[in-house]
Amino acid sequence: MAQETVARDSFMQRARELAEHGRYTAAPNPLVGAIVVRDGAVVGEGWHAHSGGDHAEVRAIESSGPAAQGAELYVTLEPCNHHGKTPPCTDAILRAGVKRIVAGHLDPNPKMRGRSIDLLREAGVEVEVLDDDFFEKQNEQFSHFMRTGRPFVHVKLATTLDGRIAASDGESRWVTGEAARCRAHLLRAEAGAVLVGAGTARIDDPLLTPRGLPEDPPPITRVVLDPGLTLRVDGQLARTAYTHPVIVFRGEDVEPGRADRLRALGIEVVSTPFAGGELDLIFVLEELGRRGIRGVLVEGGGKTAGRFVGRGLADKLTLFYAPKLLGAEGVPLMGALKAAGMDEAFRFHVEAVEKIGEDVILTLYPLKPKEDLVYRAD
User: Fold this and answer.
1) So which residues are the catalytic ones?
2) What gap in Å lies between CA 251 and CA 263, rounded to an integer?
3) Which end of the chain, N or C, is less surrounded by CB atoms within 10 Å?
4) For helices 56-64 and 89-96, what crossing angle results, to 10°?
5) Quick one: pLDDT at residue 378?
6) For residues 143 and 121, what is the distance between their CA atoms, to the nearest angstrom?
7) What's the whole-model pTM score?
8) What is the 3-state secondary structure (H, E, C) of 181-223?
């Protein structure tokens, strides 16, 4: 039995590794890997690479050919049993004659959770479900969205050693080196949506798309929090709105002609209520969730990032530290945060520390009560 457990864990680990191949291309779908095992040897492998493309199970079965008959399938996620952009994976499994399945995790989708397992068992397939916590971490955006209906909020900032994200004149290019900037482009591709405040959009005129990657990710949605609707009609965001979506959340009392001009450029403009004198971030996240956006990378500026952290809405932080000092006149990392004393300080768990080029990347998760892993019922 111990040997069987070791073999099972080894095969599942390989499936997890395969799932990572879709890290920057599979959105909005989850990362899934699968292998086909016959007589203790791997005979087929697959992963989900693109939305609308074959799922991991199908690719693994096809790569194994006739060897799938009577074999075992190790897959990180419960196979689907519904028609979407592709046929049900359960159909392919049954046609191939797979005799046993080890699934790492039940489907987080409350409409589908456990249904495929029941169907396969009724068809005579032996099924083991591991309830693997690794799937939750590997697919933190997807799982969070399924639990809450809101996108997973990942705050990313580049800062100097003394916590400054820009010089006193607002200049922020470039705080970090090229290697760190390449990593930031990967984070954009992983998130699927990038959010900035009005000041960052106006001063930096950013494009906010992932660039320089070995494979093109799905189109990125660019989001701007702009209560006064100051977005430039001649800026990069406006000029590229038809190829990469742009959503601007504005205040309710804004000159209507301005919104019409932006809409004519292909920009979606959403009237947004205020909460505490600022645009309501809960409203923003719920609206993004209704559009199927499962992850959003908050890139700045410091005030916008601080609002998400201060409201307890940041699910993850990645801070890029450059070996530079700007001094007291520089723009602070999160100017919107306020803590009266050490007891009220915002606290985090350090997940990882990595040196990249001359910079250091710090990955953090907020220390807050763990969410009950109860999936929402739609």
Assistant:
1) 57
2) 15
3) N
4) 20
5) 41
6) 25
7) 0.90
8) HHHHHHHHHHHCEEEEEHHHHHHHCCCCCCCCCCCCCCCCEEE
